[in-house]
Write a structure and sequence with these properties.
Two copies of one chain form a homodimer. With 407 residues, the first copy, chain A, is an alpha/beta fold. The first copy, chain A, contains twelve helices and 13 strands. Chain A has a seven-stranded mixed beta sheet with strand order 3-2-1-4-5-10-11, with helices on both faces. In chain A, strands 7-8-6-9 form a four-stranded parallel beta sheet, sandwiched between helices. In chain A, strands 12-13 form a two-stranded antiparallel sheet. Chains A and B meet through helix 6, helix 9, strand 9, helix 10 and strand 12 of A and helix 6, helix 9, strand 9, helix 10 and strand 12 of B.
Chain lengths: 407, 407
């Protein structure tokens, strides 16, 4: 039987390595010869930077450590493959398929978000064209939860849990002095509000919850925002607000673009959407008689391996295993989606979806899951998200710190 | 037997409620009539905002929840009592002692940092002057670890553990793309570097550790900083730096003051020392060919009840109990300090120190615990701090979130 190869791509999450563990263990179990890992995704593959995973995952403790280690064990990239229809891309695809042949690869797995699914779509489409026997399967991953054709994405549940837990703690801290105070917490997610909406999960019998949630699905005005804060603070001194990094003005500019200092960039030169909370805190302070504080959850929300959802980490492992099953059963050009079977008790299974139906598309929050005043989440969202943050997987603590595995 | 009263003051921590639990349980056990809690510290006491704690802490599950709930259960304040020698303060002190008499208080406990110890000093000094029988005892608390006459302060171990864990996770995330990248993480502590130094605890067999630590104990120059980053990045693409919010230029200005946008203020109008990492990330980006990211751990580092040190939370409980013991044995005007007995195995006990030797003083990191290049911590610091972050106390998870207790 031939070999398998697996890569990780896009922004890391705290459970993407659990999917890697799922692919690795399932491939070994089903009799793959070798299981290779590509370093820094397809970009590293193009530079022949490939490792034999069995040299690094030597025993079951390594596998357990891998499941609990945040970020991408194999490294990541944001490399977009060229269009296989473009004649200039011929060399790239010929190189890829030649190198896959050299490595005797039969099964190719790529763990990532919508950009990464684009790579799988291109590779499997090209593979079909040249009658390759190699099977290409996409494994979903993104904290943003913005993939279509899946109930949710692995990575979202843990980030949502981190946000719910952290917002509860921030609310406890922010109310401690009993003075006028506005705390604005900035949450990731670009143009989809799934992560910011998770701030609604802070509310419960032991927590008053956040006072306002601002999602990118709803156009944002500074005047409207100030009015709402003013009204809230007339009823309650300490206000806690969750705001998406991706909130936009009616003219299409991001709110964070209103900051006049330099913009940070991510590792690929994408303008980082940071500074929204800081801008809004300054604005509130100029307009209302209150102190303010802005907090960015930044990358902590995607790499907090010490606070994962066991539901999420388990599903992340399962989609890896389901991808291997599909490939070994002859499928290609597919994406493993999660299908919810029931809410109470929560049950899910996996199914296969044509990769071309997924790549490059973005799923946003249904507008009827947002309250008419645009400040809170409806019950439908809470029922959707609550099962995804259930249960914990304790880190392996060594000398007081969670143990990680790294190359 | 008379009644006891307890208050919490200053910035909250994730274990200050464990000290409250220690005071409450010990006072009940030793036969106190009632145990009152003052809301928002001495400031609330002056407004007669006092509760009977037994109405809120009804059973042992409430006590366990209290130990695990971050921030100050009773609320906090940053109120400075007037000088009792000042004739204008007469009314204030007469009010306080009159109200204490009304409540039949014999034991007065105040949990806080150096400002709060000032309150205990003033009250006990005034009490002695007027021959009051009331015993005043200070219970230490501060994440900053800047109290003198104690090996360390409750609150520090948990914040240090949170920082170590989070820095490990940030390092895993920041190295994932293999590109030039400088991540600057801003850590609290004002003029003492204890918390920022805790970033050194990220390093271990499974983690390369942070590349540079900038402490307020060492004068900071922007030119020197850029030179160091440049040198580091010539050896390694992804650099992670921990910087104290309190780093200062040789002329005495805080680095964060170099930002030209508005300054946020804390709940008391103190200028918030935020924006240091953001300023430095912008500076690096202007001077070196690299992407950058700034991260502020903000209040997350002081309220992360989900990631506490069991050593810390246990000691926080113990200093509460030791304060009660001291008061019931007739002591007054004392502060409970932690004395380290041995490092391996780590053992500590409590002792009593005259409150006047503690109030308003600040303890900094010994300079010989910093490497000569001013970029790392010496072994002496690691040996000091490592025992303080050992072991965990799992939150009580209810429906996927840590359960808190609140008024």
């Amino acid at each position: 039987m031939g070999n398998a190869i697996v890569g990780q791509s896009g922004g890391p999450t705290s459970v993407i390595n659990s999917s890697l563990a799922g692919v690795y263990e399932s491939a070994i179990e089903r009799g793959a010869g070798k299981v290779y890992g590509m370093l820094n995704g397809i970009q590293g593959f193009l530079e022949k930077r490939v490792i034999d995973l069995s040299l690094y995952l030597k025993n079951s403790l390594d596998i357990e450590s891998l499941k609990r280690t945040p970020s991408s064990f194999l490294g990541s990239c944001r490399y977009k493959l060229p269009d296989p229809e473009d004649p200039e891309s011929k060399d790239t695809y010929e190189f890829i398929f030649q190198y896959l042949k050299e490595l005797d690869i039969e099964y190719f797995f790529y763990i990532g978000g919508n950009d990464s699914m684009d790579s799988i779509a291109k590779l499997s489409n090209y593979g079909k064209k040249v009658n390759s026997h190699i099977r290409f399967i996409g494994v979903p991953k993104t904290i943003d939860n913005d993939l279509v054709k899946t109930d949710h994405t692995p990575g979202y549940g843990s980030a949502a849990k981190y946000i719910a837990v952290t917002m509860k703690e921030i609310i406890r801290d922010a109310t401690v002095y009993g003075t006028n105070y506005v705390t604005i917490v900035e949450i990731m997610g670009r143009n989809a509000g799934w992560l910011t909406a998770a701030a609604a999960l802070a509310e419960g019998p032991d927590c008053e919850g956040v006072d306002m949630i601002c999602l990118p699905e709803i156009p944002f005005t500074c005047e409207g925002f100030i009015e709402k804060v003013k009204k809230l603070q007339s009823q309650k001194k300490s206000i806690v607000i969750a705001v998406s990094e991706g909130v936009k003005l009616p003219d299409g500019r991001y709110v964070c673009e209103l900051n006049d200092d330099g913009h940070e960039e991510d590792a690929f030169g994408h303008k980082a959407l940071t500074g929204t909370a800081r801008y809004l805190a300054n604005l509130v302070r100029k307009n209302l008689p209150t102190k303010t504080r802005s907090i960015e959850l930044s990358i902590l929300q995607r790499c907090a391996g010490h606070m994962t959802s066991r539901t999420d980490i388990t599903e992340a492992y399962q989609v890896g295993g389901a991808a291997v099953k599909a490939a070994f059963e002859g499928m290609t050009g597919k994406f493993v989606s999660i299908k919810r079977i029931s809410d109470a008790p929560y049950q899910s299974t996996t199914e296969l979806v044509d990769i071309n139906e997924v790549a490059n598309l973005e799923k946003k929050i249904p507008l009827d899951w947002i309250t008419p005043d645009h400040m809170r989440m409806e019950k439908a969202f809470l029922e959707y998200a609550t099962p995804l943050i259930q249960a914990e997987l304790t880190p392996i603590f060594v000398a007081g710190r969670p143990w990680h595995i790294k190359l």
